[in-house]
Amino acid sequence: MASISVVGVSVCCLLAALSPALVQAEMARYDNYRVYKLNIESVEQLQLLQLIEHHSDGYTFLSDPVNLNTTVKLVVAPHKAAEFGEFNQRFSLNAEVAFENLQALIDRQLRGRRETFGWTAYQTLEDIYTWLDTLIEQYPDVVSPIVAGESYEGREIRGVKVSYKQGNPAVFMEGTIHAREWISAATVTWILNALLTSEDLAVRNIAENYDWYVVPVANPDGYVYTHTTTRLWRKTRSRQNVLCYGADPNRNWDYKFNQGGTSTIPCSDTFSGPSPFSEIETRTLSEYIRSIPNLSTYLDFHASGQLLMIPYGHTREPLDNYYELMEIGTKAAAKLQERHGSIYKVGNIAEIIYVASGSSLDWVKGTLQTPLTFAYELRDTGEYGFLLPPEQIIPTAEETLDSVIVILEEGKAMGYH
């Protein structure tokens, strides 16, 4: 096996930390940054890509190099093109160009901004919070404000509660715990709007017979950063050291913390944090979720991969109601496919994506024993990833709501509510 030199690692980390992505003066641009699609076929290739992920400037992964026999996407800066060409030849990566110009893809996501709130374009945090205020004013007997936590930079983790009558079982629905996964916030807001405005009988049934606690953006600092500074940011914005910022807020929860699928390197996108609940976002959000009465269902939205996942992420061993959740998930995925033909895989996190410990889904199930716990990896299966064009927002949300209806109906039939 060929050795992989790590000479100059500290310099690379320094260059990465001083890149435009960490300078808030202006939005980082990715003109002529290529996106490559790579199939990881050997241990040697996996080691190379993990070394690049942890230590090299000029490279950014759009999906994590975790397991053999998986496909990842890697962004390569223009000044790294020659070096990556050598890697490609030396390690037989067989890299395919997915996109010639990353900036063109980002520009496509940003188009369509309008004065009125809607789902033909992606929404800023300010837009979302202003819209929530509008809902509270329009539906005072049904919609009430909630503050589900706070952020490192002092922002509130805001949401709303939708309740048509007392005594309902509760559903907690959250999006954008990973900052760059904009489709999750858009999907959550679209579903929230449907709960209030749809005349479909199945939607009215779940809207009025459950109390909905809805948080569109669980990581507000990171989400703002993706709109103002660098589109590719994933983590929180807490300062870890002189060079590194943020922790992965979906590896920071106090359940099986650091039991696999995490990094202890502060600059890594999957850095779990120095300790469980080190991030104020996860700590305060967990406290709020714990306070919700009659919580029967937890729904968490991510992107991408078209997966419907159940706990756990630290192990492939079945949880107590694994087979019932798999039955519900399989029916939900079948219903989701009917509208637009999107195919979702169903399984526990470790089975169908990779080992990932310390997630919110695992904490809600493992600590609170919430019976119905599902996490979505929304569209798509690799073409755009979390850079999904805005014209796919509404189709994604429509099919997702179809599946949520099934989850609640099947859960009720099994006595979970």
UniProtKB/TrEMBL annotation:
It is found in: Secreted. One of its GO terms (cellular component) is extracellular space. PROSITE patterns: CARBOXYPEPT_ZN_1 (PS00132), PEPTIDASE_M14 (PS52035). Pfam families: Peptidase_M14, Propep_M14. GO terms for molecular function: metallocarboxypeptidase activity; zinc ion binding. Keywords: Carboxypeptidase, Disulfide bond, Hydrolase, Metal-binding, Metalloprotease, Protease, Secreted, Signal, Zinc. Its cofactor is Zn(2+). The active site is at 377 (proton donor/acceptor). Residues 121-411 form the Peptidase M14 domain. Residues 1-25 form the signal peptide. GO terms for biological process: proteolysis. Gene3D superfamilies: Metallocarboxypeptidase-like, Zn peptidases. Involved in the digestion of the blood meal. Belongs to the peptidase M14 family. This is Zinc carboxypeptidase A 1.
